[in-house]
């Protein structure tokens, strides 16, 4: 016990602590100075994104499964612990061999600089905060280690070390380390707050007036909503729309600075500003988006009215060359999606969207511009904060998730869902309203059937169909007898194909199988 206590008071433990404080200073100074540079170059977030990039897929899956929507907080805790551990080692190494310590700090600085400058839309000048942070970290490490050399001879004091009283050295060390750590905390917090305050993007979005569409969306027919109470609204309000992305913090793009570059296998490179979009003939249409990660029965799907420019028009100006079969769309934060070229050119009205349900895109749904492509899962089509379209070939380029084990293409699979009653619900015997949602974007839904326990499949009441690219709701009045019951559901799409009962995981190209909910009737 006393041994441990003595060890904790000795140079090895204290130099490890010095390493942690120095690492905190590197990050805090970088973050504070970074507040005066572009918001998307914030070093902590950039480092977090790099961390995500290097997290093995199994660990990522584990994190999402374990922490759910808190996975981003878990990432920062994990990143903090990893950095702290490395910083401990760095401190001890620096104490024993200063030159190695310098190399260690420079390496840490290089990793942060690399994280920052490899983010899309970042200028080389954005490396400045990380460089200054690194220098500050070096100075702090040197200053903190100095008093330690006056302590016990461990392993042996350098020739220039002044022998001193260990207790005094320790006091000096803790005073310096404490003050520095507190200053780092204040600097980091200040940097975050300052960065947020300097962002006027949310205000600019509020002030933005969307133009009227040249071609309005067809009126939503009466009767699209399921007769069963509790089925989600046919149009998903923006604040209830599911959100899926790899962005640690929502990218903040000034619409006036936004520019889309269309290049690659094209006759003519095209550049588009936000004003160009506002001035163009925009269309409006209802489209249901769906995430490939949606499990059977899941709710990673939403339906909205989008306002935007058909991507077809942009491609017409760029004139893709023969042999091109894919468009790789990239967001400002480096996400990318591979979309078949012909899908962006056919009449399904894939668009560069600027409006969602009559408002400018919410920041987290891609402000100022995102892609909306009917019929494809979001991971291969719905690029938010899009800034780059490269006309290319599937054989030549891979998108973000394709490089991580997901498919390169992602047509949406036919899916039916029971929304009420909820799985494991208890309902009173008698008439029970059963209802839900089904989708097969671009093919449409022509039939939904349910099977209760082992009875025959019965066709349910379909709500009105608005279009082939939106979901379709359904309802059924069930005469429920007491006991435990299973309700299974399946849909038939517009080609006449019945939804497969073959169970598949979301990876690599979307879940399949029939949902079954258990309901207790009392
Ligand atoms: N920039 C960017 N765009 C992105 C993603 C992303 O991670 N980054 N995720 C995609 C995925 S997987 C889906 S399902 C949709 C979700 O769009 P939403 O968040 O607006 O619902 O966005 C797509 N666009
Ligand atoms: Mo997704």
From TrEMBL:
<feature type="transmembrane region" description="Helical">
    <location>
        <begin position="127"/>
        <end position="145"/>
    </location>
</feature>
<protein>
    <submittedName>
        <fullName>Oxidoreductase</fullName>
    </submittedName>
</protein>
<keyword id="KW-1133">Transmembrane helix</keyword>
<dbReference type="GO" id="GO:0006790">
    <property type="term" value="P:sulfur compound metabolic process"/>
</dbReference>
<dbReference type="InterPro" id="IPR000572">
    <property type="entry name" value="OxRdtase_Mopterin-bd_dom"/>
</dbReference>
<keyword id="KW-0472">Membrane</keyword>
<dbReference type="Pfam" id="PF00174">
    <property type="entry name" value="Oxidored_molyb"/>
</dbReference>
<feature type="transmembrane region" description="Helical">
    <location>
        <begin position="72"/>
        <end position="93"/>
    </location>
</feature>
<dbReference type="InterPro" id="IPR014756">
    <property type="entry name" value="Ig_E-set"/>
</dbReference>
<dbReference type="GO" id="GO:0020037">
    <property type="term" value="F:heme binding"/>
</dbReference>
<feature type="transmembrane region" description="Helical">
    <location>
        <begin position="100"/>
        <end position="121"/>
    </location>
</feature>
<dbReference type="InterPro" id="IPR036374">
    <property type="entry name" value="OxRdtase_Mopterin-bd_sf"/>
</dbReference>
<feature type="domain" description="Oxidoreductase molybdopterin-binding">
    <location>
        <begin position="248"/>
        <end position="401"/>
    </location>
</feature>
<dbReference type="GO" id="GO:0008482">
    <property type="term" value="F:sulfite oxidase activity"/>
</dbReference>
<feature type="transmembrane region" description="Helical">
    <location>
        <begin position="173"/>
        <end position="195"/>
    </location>
</feature>
<keyword id="KW-0812">Transmembrane</keyword>
<dbReference type="GO" id="GO:0043546">
    <property type="term" value="F:molybdopterin cofactor binding"/>
</dbReference>
């Amino acid at each position: 016990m006393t041994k441990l206590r003595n060890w904790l008071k000795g140079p090895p433990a204290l130099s490890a602590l010095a390493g942690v404080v120095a690492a905190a200073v590197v990050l805090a100074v970088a973050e504070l100075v970074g507040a005066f540079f572009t918001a998307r170059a914030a070093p902590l977030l950039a480092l977090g994104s790099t961390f995500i990039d290097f997290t093995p897929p199994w660990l990522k899956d584990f994190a999402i499964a374990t922490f759910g929507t808190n996975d981003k907080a878990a990432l920062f805790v994990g990143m903090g612990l990893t950095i702290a551990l490395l910083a401990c080692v760095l401190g001890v190494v620096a104490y024993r061999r200063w030159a190695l310590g310098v190399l260690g700090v420079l390496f840490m600085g290089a990793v942060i600089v690399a994280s920052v400058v490899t983010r899309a839309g970042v200028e080389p000048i954005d490396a400045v905060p990380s460089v200054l942070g690194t220098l500050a970290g070096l100075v702090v490490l040197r200053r903190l280690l100095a008093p330690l050399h006056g302590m016990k001879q461990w392993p042996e004091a350098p020739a220039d070390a002044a022998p001193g009283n260990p207790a005094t050295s320790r006091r000096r060390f803790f005073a310096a380390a404490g003050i520095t750590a507190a200053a780092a905390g204040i600097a980091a917090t200040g940097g975050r707050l300052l960065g947020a305050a300097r962002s006027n993007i949310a205000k600019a979005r509020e002030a933005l007036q969307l133009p009227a569409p040249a071609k309005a969306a067809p009126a939503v027919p009466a009767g699209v909503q399921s007769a069963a109470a509790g089925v989600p609204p046919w149009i998903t309000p923006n604040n209830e729309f599911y959100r899926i992305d790899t962005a640690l913090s929502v990218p903040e793009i000034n619409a006036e600075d936004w520019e889309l570059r269309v290049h690659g296998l094209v006759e003519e490179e095209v550049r588009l500003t936000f004003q160009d979009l506002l001035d163009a003939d925009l269309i409006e249409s209802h489209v249901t988006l769906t995430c490939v990660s949606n499990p059977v029965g899941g709710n990673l799907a939403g339906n909205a009215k989008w306002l935007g420019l058909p991507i077809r028009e942009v491609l017409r100006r760029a004139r893709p060359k023969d042999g091109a079969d894919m468009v790789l769309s990239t967001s400002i934060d480096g996400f990318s999606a591979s979309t078949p070229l012909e899908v962006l050119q056919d009449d399904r009205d894939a668009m560069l969207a600027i409006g969602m349900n009559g408002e400018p895109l919410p920041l987290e749904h891609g402000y100022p511009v995102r892609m909306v492509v009917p019929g494809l899962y979001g991971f291969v089509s719905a690029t938010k904060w899009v800034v780059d379209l490269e006309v290319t070939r599937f054989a030549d380029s891979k998108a973000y998730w394709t490089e991580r084990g997901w498919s390169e293409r992602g047509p949406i699979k036919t899916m039916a869902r029971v929304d009420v009653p909820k799985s494991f619900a208890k309902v009173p015997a008698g008439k029970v309203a059963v209802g839900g949602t089904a989708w097969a974007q671009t093919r449409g839904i022509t039939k939904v059937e349910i099977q209760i326990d082992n009875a025959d499949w019965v066709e349910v009441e379909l709500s009105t169909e608005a279009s082939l690219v939106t979901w379709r709701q359904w309802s059924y009045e069930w005469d429920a007898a007491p006991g435990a019951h299973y309700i299974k559901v399946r849909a038939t799409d517009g080609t006449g194909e019945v939804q497969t009962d073959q169970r598949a995981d979301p990876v690599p190209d979307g879940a399949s199988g029939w949902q079954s909910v258990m309901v207790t009737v009392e």
